[in-house]
Amino acid sequence: MRIPAHSVCTAIRDDIVAGVYKRGSRLTEEVLARRYGVSRVPVREALRTLEAEGFVVTRRHAGACVAEPTEQEAADLLEMRMLLEPLGAARAAQRRTEAHLKVLRGLVRLGQERARRGSSEDLRSLGGWFHETLAQACGSPSLTSMLTQLRHKIAWMYTVEAPNSPVESWAEHGAMVDAVARGDAERARALTALHAERATGAHRLRFSGAAERVRTSQHPVNMSGPRH
């Protein structure tokens, strides 16, 4: 069975974000194909996609390598997110479906419950799902794709400190969903802008030597479907 290139792309991207491949390290088709248990064809396609996304660069005499973003490029990503997430929330207020609202409200309930309990690891995952769902609710595939790429790249370049008040953070999520549910685009935009601005201060660059250590996880692609 031929493994889809997008599954290979997801696996390589996840490993880049997780730090399995150091910034600047070579990515050879043969080694990647062996690692993920696929042929070189989907690996080649995946590397082209990752180059377009900015995770990979092609260098003369070296081939595909993990990109080495500058501090300015990393800072630009946070600024872009602060502009695009409020736009996505405003669009979601106009275009969301009842299914989107159901998921968002369910995530807020879980987040508020975990925040009261102090379950920080659960909150990180729930926060990611919340923002992913909000991006999907905007009704614009191109904007959703841009927001998804931003999340991946920011996760690659930054560590994020837990909020000082998780309960307050999830109250902000709840207010954003209320605005989206009412179709109040301007309030959804304003609340999301404030939330994004506060979250930006918790981001710390990973570009130190300690953060560059290679991890050794293995992720065969051809086992049980695409990874998220």
UniProtKB/TrEMBL annotation:
Annotated ranges, domain HTH gntR-type: 2-69
CDD domains with a match to the protein in the record: WHTH_GntR (cd07377)
Alphabetized InterPro entries for the sequence: GntR_C, TF_FadR/GntR_C, Tscrpt_reg_HTH_GntR, WH-like_DNA-bd_sf, WH_DNA-bd_sf
Pfam families: FCD, GntR
Alphabetical keyword list: DNA-binding, Transcription, Transcription regulation
Stretches the record annotates as Disordered: 209-228
Membrane-spanning ranges: none
Coiled coil: none
Highest taxon, organism lineage: Bacteria
Name this polypeptide is given: GntR family transcriptional regulator
